[in-house]
Specification:
By secondary structure, this protein is of the alpha/beta class. About 45% of the residues lie in helices and about 15% in strands. It has a five-stranded parallel beta sheet with strand order 4-15-14-13-12. The chain has a four-stranded parallel beta sheet with strand order 5-6-10-11. The longest helix is centred in the C-terminal third of the chain and has 26 residues. It binds one RNA strand through helix 5, helix 11 and helix 16.
Length: about 400
Amino acid sequence: MSEARPPLFTLEAASGSARAGALDTPHGRVDTPAFMPVATQGSVKALDSADLARIGAGIVLANTYHLYLRPGVEVIGDLGGIHGFMAWDGPVLTDSGGFQGFSLEHLRELDEEGILFKSHLDGSLHRFTPEAVVEHQRGLGADIVMPLDVCEPAGADRGAVEGSVHRTLRWARRSLDAHGGSGQALFGIVQGGTFGDLREVSAAETVAMDFPGYAIGGLSVGESKAEMYDTTGLTARLLPDDRPRYLMGVGSPEDLVECVARGIDMFDCVLPTRIARNGALFTRSGRVNVDTSPFRTMDGPVGESCDCYTCATFPAGYLCHLFRAKELLAYRLASIHNLRFVLRLMEEMREAIVEGRFESFRRAFADRFTPPDEGTRRDQKRKWLSAMERTRARE
RNA sequence: GGAGGGAUGGGAGAGUGGUUAAAUCCACCAGACUGUAAAUCUGGCGCCCGGAAGGGCUACGUAGGUUCGAAUCCUACUCCCUCCA
């Protein structure tokens, strides 16, 4: 190991390609596979750090672009860094703003130097260079920091993706140089869309720079699940065993299981919290919209055998009511439930890996949990088939 | 007793001769959401047939009438509101 610092990651067990390990950060140890709740603006929407601790969150993600614009890196630095600012003692990872280059593409100009953002708040211009982003994240003080990268949407042509791969590599080099000997762990990010050969180039060149951890970016941006799974598996195999692998922006329950199966150690995703605020809750058998009529009079918890505070305390009918009445408590209780669901899933996967039975866990999960897309497709198919039967019966 | 105003789909409320099964909002019924510009967005919402396209029926207080055509114009009735006595 080339770095003088103690290793960030320890690989503890494997079951097939699935791995269990631990991240050691200045703010404590995190078991992997790990899911990072997203606190874009220094808050996991609707929750506070005490809530996060209670549901078993080990590490959270915050966003450099958003916090730089508001309240500003200096303010956060003066208020104790990101940890003191949000009163969270656990590990924090900050994303670079590279994703905003994708999600806010109509508000930015991209060139070799960096990304020029037109603030979504007040229209002011801000140049994000790889060097500036490293500096901003130093000010925020997260345990793990991400370099500025270029993320192309699904369907981008090969030339564009190839360009993003090489630019991301050049920016990674610049980030590394600017980073110097900081105690923060700077990850490398592999790009390449769904092009296997580009992923190979990106991974090889990024790994050659010897980062303490590697992220897979540019997925879950509109490609099919099959493509996303294939690319994840392919890319994970290109990364060194002794470094954590972080799949950026992925986090539906079925994706977490399938990507842990392909060797991923870390995830972050807004999905559990966003859909929670919109009334969708995870259960062992799939997703349900708790604001719908079947739940109006339902007694007992929404999820079967869920150990979260929400399920332990309130009947489903109460949650249904809170959503219909647009009571603020709805967002908190639903977010607690969905995050606990996902965090517990990670715990269960880790346990299965350690005990060498991940594959059977995965099968059992898939048998029981119906993803929404699949469910919708099934419904459509059933409707179509019954219509055809009726037509045949008439003839 | 007199004068005036008004009755529209579950609610509020547009619409004053055809393009109106009737704007819009709410409620209701569903769906979506993946490194958060999201407590957001999309679809449906008279009845019947249809997978759909489409078709049929009923409807703007009640009953008549004028008109090729009425939620819209006329008459009567019922109810509600305001003001005067």
